[in-house]
Structure formats: C-alpha cells, structure tokens
Amino acid sequence: MKILLSIASLVAFSVVPALAGEGRVSNQSLAKMGLSGMKAMSDVQGMQFRGLSVQVGGFSSATINGVGGSASSVNFYYASGKKEASGENLSVAGDVTSTITTHGSHVTTTTTINVIGAGGFSSASR
Fold it and tell me: Which of 7, 9, 91, 98 is deepest in the core (most CB within 10 A)?
C-alpha cells in the first residue's frame, strides 16, 4: 500500500508542472482570483521594472553582565527605496556597580561604571 501511495504521489507531482502552463497563470485562474483584466508581459517588458529598488538592513546587539545583573540592547532596521536606501543603528548596554565600605567612622564609596556598545551602518544605491 505504501508503494502504491508513493507512486501515485510521484505521478501527481510530475503532472503539476505540465498543468502550470509553462509558468503562466491561465486566464481562467486569473478570473477566479478576481484578476480577469490582467495580462502577461514579455520578458523584455519586464526588464523595464526589474531592479528598480534597493534594500538594506542591519542588526546590533550589546549585552553586559554585571555584579547585580545584566543589561542588554538589541536593534534591527530595514530600509528600502527606489534608487537608494541607508540606515544605521546603535546598541548600548551599561552596568553601574556601587560598593560602600565602612571602617569605623570612615565610609568609602567605590563606583564602577561599565558600558559596552555595538553599532552598524548600511547603504545601498543603484
């Protein structure tokens, strides 16, 4: 039974590309989708529209683990445009640790500041 099912699946998948009309959607299928007025364009016509936009994206992350815990910053960006696109991001995470020490009547305060950063910049143009 498994062999018969496997053969039937193989035949069904091999027939599907033949029904696709060489990569073109049939007029009947377009009409069913409510797009009956659409028409296919040639590859030459399509070349007028290809490559008319650019896209860039970026990511930055900064994490620091301190005495009392941790801090983290994560940033993403995405930019697109018809002729050019650019974007930038910056992530900064910080930790402040303060220690108070008492020796009799003498009090000493020690403060430690830790900062870590990460950033990025992307640009694209056509």
Answer: 91
User: Looking up tokens 């683990």, which residue turns up?
Assistant: 65
Q: Which helix (H) or strand (E) holds 6?
A: helix 2-19
Burial 43-77 (b: 16+ CB within 10 A, else e): eeeeeeeeeeebebebebebebeeeeeebebebeb
Q: pLDDT tens across 66-106, in order?
A: 776 778 888 888 888 888 888 888 888 887 777 778 877 88
Kindly give the pairing relationship between strand 70-81 and strand 84-103: unpaired
What pTM does this model have? 0.43
Domain locations in the chain? 1-40, 50-126
